[in-house]
Amino acid sequence: MSMQSDSANTSANTLPGRWQPAVTQDPMLHKHGALGQPVSRIDGPLKVQGKAQFAAEFPYEGLCYAALAFSTVARGRITALDTAAAEAAPGVVLVMTHRNAPRMKAPSLMMSSPTAAGASDLPVMQDDEIHWNGQPIAVVLAETLEQADHAASLVRADYAPLPAVTSFDEAKKTPRQLDNILGQPPVVEIGDAEAALKAAAVQVDQIYRTPRHNHNAIELHAATVAWTGDELRVHDANQLLDLTAGQLADIFGLEPDKVRVSSPFVGGGFGGKCLWDHQILACAAAKLAGRPVRIMLSREGVFRIVGGRTLTEQRVALGAGTDGRLDALIHTGIVAMTTHNSCPEQFTFPARHLYAAKSIRLAQEVADMDMLANTFMRAPGESVGTFALECAIDELAEKLSLDPIELRRRIEPETDPTSGKPFSSRHLIDAYDKGAARFGWDRRNPKPRQRRDGEWLIGMGCATATYPYHRFPGGAARIRLTAGGQVTVSTAVHDMGMGTATAQAQHIAARLGVPIGNVTFEYGDTTLPRGVIAGGSTQTASIGGAVIAAAEVFVEELLKLAGNDSPLAGLSLAEVETRDGGIGHREDASRFESYESILRRSGRDELVCEAEAPPPAEMEAFSMHSYGAQFCEVRVSEITGEVRVSRFLGSFDAGRILNAKTATSQFKGGIIMGIGLALTEEANFDPRSGRIVNASLADYHVPVQMDVPAIEILYTDIPDPQAPMGARGIGEIGITGVGAAVANAVYNATGKRIRDLPITLDKLM
Amino acid sequence: MNFTINGQSVEVEADIRSSLLDLLRNSLGFTGTKKGCDQGACGACTVLVDGERINSCLALAVQYQGRSITTVEGLGSDGNLHPLQQAFVDHDGFQCGYCTPGQLCSAIGMAREIERNIPSVVTADFMAVSVTVDERELRERMSGNLCRCGAYNGIIEAISETLEKMPASTQERARA
């Protein structure tokens, strides 16, 4: 499909000058200015001084501290709950249990309504029933943190256990098929893939397993909450502000505008900083005690009540002709979930869009367990799905005696393999070629165990990275222009370190033709125009859509204010552009008037415009994804089985890059989390008790400095013609493909295929 | 209890059970020092005590009376950032910024350890007269400070640049 430019588009239903998703292109697509520059984070000076204020750092008069006690059984009823010692302990203000907690509505599952933010739909501390090992059974409020922690340790509980499913092997005997996987069908079948597999000249058919992971943002989950009458104020660490405010209003029976949630800074999110029990319990306890409350979970508390990525068991089967072309692509499997949440870990999503195959079968199921609700964690589905798929591709390449990049070149599709839609912009092979040249892929010996440095075997591996583009509707942006030429753009979005505020300041400067120093980007507060969530790598494009719409209104308003005495007289939105702190005719440099002049002449101190983003029609019309090629070199000790990643390169095709510095950090951060996924990370779930046994940062090993090599980042920087600013999301793609790139390198080094993450020493001995 | 914090003497009444971290954050308002695990595994709470880096979550406040404590608030100020703070901004040595105060204090303490020729587990020659500072030494010595955003490479670039520019012994009180 050829793209129409906005000026060429004259069909009856178009609005001249407006961005119409899937019909016209964002006029910013090829404009540069501040966009793309490696601007340092605008909140950097605050952060390095320790002045960025996080959720647990807002002072209140009369503040008390909360501590939680947790259940020690996976399922059952509380038969005795002795809180007398806790209540009598020094400084204790309140002990709240299901017996005295205020009546609250249960949360609604995220995505079940426009205000739902529940990670599960279980009622919170409303009855004596226990649903997972680690469920909060009591909240203690005290004058000091030490007093609260001590008193919480004095709470005693007895339980009448109920039968609990805490073994995945047991749970998967009764699999359940969901009616959809994040809105997509749970089963996709094109042709008879099983028959095609059997008939294929070359076959790979393997099971891959990935364990539970935890986000483990370094900031512990925290909230400072205060009631004033029926108004609730929440300082939170949060990546879905408006949903959280709406959900809290629903839980406590308040009008939505009575709840204000803010999160100017979030100490890492990765999908974990959403609405969990602690904020709800803190609000309830604050209400009961009539005091402001601060809650900060312990690290163990994070493991007990904030869900992580669930485990997966995946089958990938590939049938190919001797030329490598796929006759059959099968990706099926099962993940652990609960009956009270909906997070199916969409591991079959990469296979829906990556490779051409004559027949395809994709299917995923869930196995219900009695456990803490699992949730979205950086590239849910794609991070672990690409591990299985990209290892299998590597295995197939070896059987075909083909270079794995050459194999991918041969199975590169022309249109989306399952939807049939055209790609908006796809340069995966380009990313492979650039990455391979830079990494020195030609020095890889396809035969394993051929490079050695003393006890260390050295190998190289590669894998495809992929993550979908998505733009959420419903977000709005407000532009305020002052007579002095200052621009403030406001929307209730989030910067958890992704660089949102910096990239958007660059975007606004470029979009409105003003210096970046004149731009303020306001975010992180539900009193601002409704924002979108920070999830699914969607925020940048979603904000982009809202800012485009607001900027169109802004220009139209200014044209009206300019009136007939302006050089702009008679011009319409389609005929003008913003430049040099004002508006000018697109083709006539002499027709220009500055913002300041327009406001001055119209006697205005300021102009305020607000608009909502147009619906994401581009997602309906096109297959839109980011891509990447991950290259890894490992050294594996033949004596200990220890794996060290010695070099890494990520080559990405993620559309237009808005800030070279912060984007590179996003890619590297994803890759580093991927190194943890590949080599060390696993939340160990005791199948007897259903309890996480390594609930600490000492026992759950996230990558440290010493685990991280030099990492090089390349990107195509080719604007996606369908995306605002030409930019697709970059927050999650970095982690995808890393597990497979490492595993494939380990195979190249040692000749051992490890299909069960993490690749720990024991598996290589 | 009496302390010297960032050069100022401070007197405060506190629970004898308070960690230095909780005392700094909750009783004294030095919230620049962060809590990430409260058990010595993440390094977010790192402060300098008489020039040496410690995990303030593992330190009972009462034991640090009379000692000189430096937190991130004592390193630099608006318009007058410490060279290491500026280098962290320049090299994007953070994303969310939560582990950053601990990284900064830890790096300054580490520089002193290197200057005093204290070897690390990767130091080839424990008897050497001077420790050779390379990337591997820095990575090993900074491995007690976790960064989940994964800004590790920017952190090493920032520390290397600052070490090249100024002697370790001047770093604690240095400002740009």
From TrEMBL, chain A:
Biased composition (Polar residues): 1-14
Pfam families xrefs: Ald_Xan_dh_C, MoCoBD_1, MoCoBD_2
InterPro entries xref list: Ald_Oxase/Xan_DH_a/b, Ald_Oxase/Xan_DH_a/b_sf, Ald_Oxase/xanthine_DH-like, AldOxase/xan_DH_MoCoBD1, AldOxase/xan_DH_MoCoBD2, AldOxase/xan_DH_Mopterin-bd_sf
Domain Aldehyde oxidase/xanthine dehydrogenase a/b hammerhead: 49-163
Residues covered by region (Disordered): 1-21
Keyword line: Molybdenum, Oxidoreductase
Signal peptide: none
UniProt GO MF annotations: iron ion binding; oxidoreductase activity
The protein's name in its UniProt record: Xanthine dehydrogenase, molybdenum binding subunit apoprotein
Taxon lineage: Bacteria, Pseudomonadati, Pseudomonadota, Alphaproteobacteria, Rhodospirillales
UniProtKB/TrEMBL annotation, chain B:
GO molecular function: 2 iron, 2 sulfur cluster binding; metal ion binding; oxidoreductase activity, acting on the aldehyde or oxo group of donors
Keyword tags: 2Fe-2S, Iron, Iron-sulfur, Metal-binding, Oxidoreductase
Domain 2Fe-2S ferredoxin-type per the UniProt entry, residue ranges: 1-75
Protein name as catalogued: Xanthine dehydrogenase YagT iron-sulfur-binding subunit
Organism for this UniProt entry: Azospirillum oryzae
